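Why does residue order matter? Because the sequence determines the fold. Keep that principle in mind as you read this record.
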Amino acid sequence: MYTKHALSQDQCLAAINAVAAAFKKDHPDSQWTLAIVDDGGNLVAFTKSDGAGPLLGRNVIKKAYTSAMTGASTKVFGQPREGEGDFAAALSEHDWNVTEWGDPMMMVISGGVAIKGPDGGLMGGIGVSGLPYGPGDHDMALVGLKAMGL
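Structure:
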């Protein structure tokens, strides 16, 4: 029999609360969004700060989706030579970019992180948008991932 781990509502709420607290503490004036998708890329949780615009919401879902589909963080698209798992190795080896994967939901901006279960299996992806380009969104997604206990 095949079994797989799935994301729980409690894990998603823990991620939302942790990221909201981190933004409130470190970036109180930022407008931000967070999305969590399952291993099929289906949205299971979404939240946004007051005033966050629609583009942040669309992009954050794409970040989470990309990480769920690839099993890698979206930061590898900007830094493919650093490598992160099999997908990043493929990017480095072939010098491919996200448009060559043929999926309009793929996102090349840092802020998406793969969610892996206790057995290492892919459970989904978490995405955060709202900080200027750089490591900020990625770091906030890691805050959410840690709060999930994974």
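The first helix runs from residue 9 to 26.
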